[in-house]
């Protein structure tokens, strides 16, 4: 996209660039122009008209002035009455320069076309009187050479015709009485053409107290003069009176000012023509000319505006007026400003009584442009979202028109180094890249600050917020996301019916933020809520039980597969060998309370991602805070609007909390050990897998991930079982393994396969014995003969202490031997004798020619019935060594049904210097608590 920033196409005037403009530069002062002390943009007629946009109202007024000066008609009296800062004084300066004729009209930009319309080639120089109410005092006469002037009429006569004109009303001036319309008309006639410019007239008249005489006359005599003046100007075709009057009572100043304004309005209404105020579009051009020099490249400007217009049409989520063809022309006219700035200022801010419609906008925009220029702003247009409200001058200019209480709103919720929008931009690169949060907050402030709580419709809608923020190549969705984040977190931002506004009163979010701190410690307040939601979303096969935030002492040590959900504090991090989750899970597989855990291979763990836990905590606190507000709505005395706000936020955070918990708990971990090539197993480590699913119940996704990565096996192949059998059990000196012992080993040792349940093993054995490629199954063994051997055919597999899995070679030998024996019976119907003369069955071992005889009946084997062992433990590593002894020795006895196991722990401690009293007390107390049968200290 080949369009240029505004700063590359148009340059501000030097005083704006340098930041040397003063407020007085934008507050036109007619008296300074008369005195010759005004800035050049007011004092020099050529510069003045170069920077002045002749509005429709000014054009009509100047047209009337030109007619009066040339005696071709026009209005004898014009009342300039617009809002404060609406350009009244500026218009009077324009009249002053035209009437004085200090420069020919062809040097006054914009004036020759007006003369051409009236077929006038040049204007005559007029006699001009300027009566500035702020520069005159009723009680202080003024020296004019040898003459002392006291009154308004004396001042007017002196300025129009000097001493000659003054002498005609000298007596009236000395006595403070009105001269009458005939004398005034005579002066106008003699000194023709004449123009009287009256600025701040109310400011002068309101100083008179009724019933009291001043050097400048009385209240009544001044009112009589104004009436005579308006009538006299009407009798002389080349005389004209222009008077500026305030539009509001505030500008009039107090009760005296309001009274004077009412009477003067009444007098002027009889003859005056009211000047049409500046329209918004004209105001834009006025500001643009006063702030910027001429545009360097109109075609480049048009390209920028066309790109914006195309974006609005294609986007479809902007205000409807942007789709209209004239909006493109508005953008061109306002360039480099975006029309939305002026729409907000002229439609919203102009409703404030003390807002200066033209002057205020001009001053604000000069400050904005200066700061943006200094900050090297590269926006394509200057938009509501561009206004740097963190600048102290700009902030002060904005809040000067608003009621008290807006400064903290700006500092915290709108703009500034410590504001929430700035924080959001810093923490989210997607926002920070385009200052999305700040642009949104600025747009909302500009469009909502002037609105009040009494209005039925407040603030601006999302379409206008996008309009104030979005530039080409930017996604409006980013600003929508920023708006949603701000709406969740700001204290002074309100919303309703898709409209957003700021207010000086904090919203319920402040109450919610305060309440969030109540929910500590998190283990007590947050974990129950998180656990409740996890339990609701974790149900079903293949886990026999799901333990959410359960201590290891309460998790049974059995052969069922169990899912253990760890608290958020026990989080996990991808590919990190040791995490809080693996540390805690390690304790779970080693212990059940104070006892060692036997079945270490039956626990799988679900844990939260380390980076997501803070989000879980934050959203849980927010949900609980909003829920508590609803619970306390009566105590808080909430109105219906706030109840609705609280209900909506509670609902939103309820949904959001479910989502963040779902996203956070995405790791399943399980213990594992690898078989080493030289025998034995390696160190224990943790397998990790990420669970990604949009399904509410994530058990299905967990099961799928576990099965896919063989962390939990729901179906198994006989070949895999065969491999495990040959790796660990079936060796040259061992031809079978107890099915019960095999299953117990699968449940106990992490290096063994982790099957869902015994049925998986049972089905695998059933499938394997149908073939002669894997192994056989026997229901028992009597000496060297397998009872109920199944090999190469279907059969039932039972789980009991006698069931065996048989090496396929041994199964094959027995099957062959039984077959041979059967064949011999058929042939000889006898059994060959052995060396000892007993009846036996001969089975040849592999690699031998002669059969090995096995007695058919033998005496019962004598077996050991008692075990006793003593071991000395290292006191430093006693806990670890005892755990190893339990696993490697004791568990072999405790797993045998009917075996009584007694363990006695004997402790002896000897100190050469004797034990301290504190040690003695502690050990005695702990011994009693732990149930020691005998525990005592001895002196010798």
TrEMBL record:
It comes from Candidatus Magnetoglobus multicellularis str. Araruama. Residues 831-841 have a biased composition (Polar residues). InterPro entries: DUF499 (IPR007555). Residues 815-859 are annotated as: Disordered. It comes from the Bacteria. Residues 815-826 have a biased composition (Basic and acidic residues). This is ATP-binding protein.
